[in-house]
Amino acid sequence: MSKGLGDLRGFKRLLDRKEAELVQGLRRRGDIAIEQSPDQIDELQQSATLELAVQNLSRGHSLLRDVRAALQRIQDGSFGACLQCQRAINSKRLAAVPWAPLCIECQEAADDVDESSGSPLPIGRDQADGPQDDLRVVHRDRVAA
Questions:
Q1: Cβ atoms < 10 Å from Cβ of 134
Q2: What are 143's strand-pairing partners?
Q3: DSSP structural state of residue 39
Q4: Which of 28, 74, 118, 141 has a CA-to-CA distance to 90 between 20 and 30 Å?
Q5: How far apart are CA 104 and CA 93, in angstroms?
Q6: Surface-to-core class of residue 68, CB atoms within 10 Å of its CB (0-12 exposed, 13-18 middle, 19+ buried)
């Protein structure tokens, strides 16, 4: 979808700032450390803190991929078009979530599929992101990329 030049510049500036913020946050991985403690309660607390830090790191990495994919869509001229149905993404949605790859209808459908199956969303990340870092978080019986 073709957005106005001023709109694209504004979205690009916003996305560039978000990317820098996320990169800076992901560089601070000092929260993730494994410490031995003689006290079992302390170990449980540290384990819960570690799990939360790993989840936050994973979420931040995923958001960074989404932001970079949106920047790529600006560059290739497809920003603002839903990756699923190719219709225009509502401008209010883009204003709220400029890295959104799907229109609200397709996002809701994908969320419904995700909730019912428990599997990752099939939204064509491989085409949108280009090369991806191989960050995988192993948690219990589940592997999330």
A1: 6
A2: 138
A3: S
A4: 118
A5: 8
A6: buried
Structure tokens given for 79: 């920003």
Q: Which residues pair with 142 in a beta bridge?
A: 139
pLDDT digits (tens, 9 = 90+) for 15-54: 999 999 999 888 876 556 666 777 888 878 888 888 888 8
- Using alpha carbons only, how large is the chain's radius of gyration in Å? 18
Q: Where are the alpha helices (DSSP H) in 28-123?
A: 40-76, 91-96, 104-117
Q: Provide the pLDDT for residue 120.
A: 52
Give 102-119 as a 3 state SS string.
CCHHHHHHHHHHHHHHCC
Query: Among 76, 60, 65, which Cα is nearest to 8's?
Result: 76
What are the tens digits of pLDDT across the range 83-125? 999 999 999 999 999 999 999 999 999 998 877 766 555 554 4
CA distance 72 to 5: 16
Paired residues of 144 in beta bridges = 137
Q: In the beta sheet, which residues pair with residue 139?
A: 142
Do residues 76 and 12 touch, judged by C-beta distance below 8 A? no
